Amino acid sequence: MKKRINVAQIGVGYWGPNLLRNLVANKSVNVKKVVDLSSERREYVRGLYPAVSVTDKTE
Asked: Which residues span the domain enclosing 9?
């Protein structure tokens, strides 16, 4: 099995959900974290991808 690349996405604004969908669908990528300042956007991502860690901090 090929090693997966761990990534974090910063920002889930206008294009963010589309990028995140493609990252999650890519078998070579492991989305470890999504960061967004908006609590509404964070909740949106949590609803779609409960296995992904979602936060407002880049640390």
From this structure: 5-55
